[in-house]
Design goal:
Elements lengths: L19 H5 L30 E7 L16 E7 L6 E8 L6 E3 L5 E6 L13 E7 L6 E8 L5 E6 L5 E6 L9 E7 L5 E9 L17 E6 L5 E6 L4 E8 L4 E11 L6 E6 L5 E6 L4 E8 L4 E9 L21 E7 L5 E7 L3 E7 L6 E8 L5 E6 L5 E6 L4 E7 L6 E9 L3 E9 L1
Antiparallel strand pairs: 1-2, 1-28, 2-3, 4-5, 5-6, 6-7, 8-9, 9-10, 10-11, 12-13, 13-14, 14-15, 16-17, 17-18, 18-19, 20-21, 21-22, 22-23, 24-25, 25-26, 26-27
Length: 438
């Protein structure tokens, strides 16, 4: 498949702004291809039996200058729309919707609307936060997007967005970057037409919000906000404070109040980044960017509380990859990015940048504990994001610095990754969301 041709925008995109990479210089050039041998050999070009259905796939990107951790300027223009071929998971280009740095995406429960962050800010004088969230309608017949509206997040570098499982509210995490603009968590009302309404709450970090890493944890860094499966509790993953914050959520007024157990700590200096819940709702898993580990927790859905069960490395024993020191990611260092759980709850996956591998874990359905099962190379650099199609048949991995999407089949018996079945040219792929059937 050739690189997608761009389409004429149907809206005027705002002038490009500074990226988090330019302002914070958090990450340097990514390390080379991984030297880690995968525990399970990829079955290249295999075509496993598919229970998937053709649907539209949406890919978030970075569009401005050199993306975080990247080695070259991006060629992306916004959100990319593809059609997924059900038998083999391959993607056909449909549309490129221009917008600034739509690094993370979310779709409402009815799959009628798509939301993205615009990871920007502050302005040149470092006086005004420029982060935004944007809403799009999804054309059910061809998957294309149309801009509805955009709204400020009152913070800088929003890097995650989430729609309440019952609809009605949108949550965003402002990564932040300075004492003046630290990390924060925002809640928005969603209107009946899918547009983003009023911000109902903004929670900024209290105190200095620092962790022990003087470079990456210099202030609070809100890296993710999500609900539990019930939607009764909301959680904010703060990399700068090594903490997952817990709130009760008022679904009438859109307000967050501290849960009875208001937070859960991860290992000191671990730098928690993202988390996911077991489909059964009784376990939760947190991936730690800086320590390249995953924490397993039991989860109390009534109180919204976590009890630590286990911490496991996302890298093999005796690996040559170590933790980066400072803002660069030199060769032979690695940090974690995304975590996903299979729809059956039997397998957990973690992405590792630098090592450029996907970690595969078996999930004990009784205890919730993890057993490392293997490591599969992504066939590219900086796998910043990945996601599994709703049928559990395919995994899509965005090799940000290689401008490719790796498509893997998922073995229905053991959860191992097969392939890649395809390696699709796509500029600066970061995040994936699955929309309506095609």
């Amino acid at each position: 498949m050739t690189k997608p041709n761009l389409v004429t925008p149907d809206v005027q995109s705002p002038a490009p702004q500074k990226t988090r990479r330019q302002f914070l210089q958090l990450l340097g050039a990514a390390a080379g291809a991984a030297a880690v041998a995968p525990a399970t050999l990829a079955r290249a070009q295999a075509n496993p039996p598919s229970s998937a259905k053709a649907r539209y796939v949406y890919v978030g990107t970075y569009t401005i200058d050199i993306p975080p951790g990247g080695s070259h300027p991006t060629n992306a223009v916004g959100i990319y729309v593809y059609k997924m071929d059900a038998p083999n998971g391959r993607l056909t280009f449909v549309q490129a919707m221009p917008t600034d740095n739509p690094s993370f995406l979310a779709i409402d429960p009815q799959q009628a609307y798509l939301y993205c962050v615009n990871e920007l800010g502050p302005d040149a004088g470092e006086t005004t936060p420029l982060g935004r969230v944007s809403a799009y309608s999804i054309n059910q017949s061809d998957g294309t997007l149309r801009l509805i509206n955009t709204a400020p997040t009152n913070g800088t570098y929003p890097c995650h967005v989430w729609v309440h499982p019952k609809g009605g509210y949108l949550f965003a995490a402002n990564y932040g970057g300075t004492v003046k603009f630290p990390g924060s968590f925002a809640v928005f009302k969603l209107n009946s037409d899918g547009s983003i309404g009023a911000m109902t709450q903004l929670i900024r970090e209290e105190g200095n919000g620092t962790g022990p890493d003087p470079v990456r944890e210099e202030v609070g860094h809100a890296h993710m906000i999500l609900t539990d499966p019930s939607g009764n509790h909301v959680f904010g993953v703060d990399l700068g404070m090594d903490m997952v914050k817990a709130w009760d959520f008022d679904q009438v007024n859109g307000k967050l109040t501290p849960a009875s157990v208001p937070s859960a700590s991860v290992g000191v200096g671990s730098g928690c980044r993202h988390m996911t819940f077991h489909p059964g709702g009784k376990f939760a898993y947190v991936i730690n960017e800086l320590s390249s580990t995953v924490n397993a927790h039991s989860f109390d859905p009534n109180r919204g509380a976590f009890i630590w069960l286990q911490t496991v490395s996302t890298l093999p024993k005796n690996t040559q990859f170590t933790r980066p020191v400072g803002v660069e990611i030199p060769p032979h260092t690695s940090t974690c990015s995304e975590i996903r759980i299979h729809p059956t709850g039997h397998w957990l996956y973690g992405a590792n940048r630098g090592a450029n591998v996907i970690s595969v874990f078996a999930v004990d359905q009784t205890t919730g504990k993890l057993t490392p099962q293997g490591w599969v190379q992504t066939q590219g650099k900086i796998p910043r994001g990945m996601n599994i199609d709703p049928s559990g048949t395919f995994m899509y991995v965005g090799n940000q610095d290689s401008d490719t999407i790796a498509v893997f089949g998922i073995d229905p018996w053991d959860g191992d990754l097969q392939g890649p079945l395809d390696l699709i040219p796509s500029p600066t792929p970061v995040d994936f969301e699955f929309g309506p059937f095609a």
